[in-house]
Design a protein that fits this description.
With 72 residues, the chain is α+β, with helices and mostly antiparallel strands. The protein is globular, with a radius of gyration of 12 Å.
Amino acid sequence: MRALLDEGRARPDPLCLGLDVTDNLNLIGDGGHTSSRLFVLGPPTRSAFWEIIAVPDIRKQGRAFAARLFPG
């Protein structure tokens, strides 16, 4: 994560709880650039999704993300 932040490909979320992401889990970098190739799951998305530290919650988030990547 440090390298992503140092390179400007990621930025801290507004509450400084993790990384800034879109509703679709795309990573947001410096200047508000949304990555089409970098995604974030789990605890680093706390600011956007709150209680996302328990395994069942992360599993649910991952399942929904996979369904968007591979529909059908």
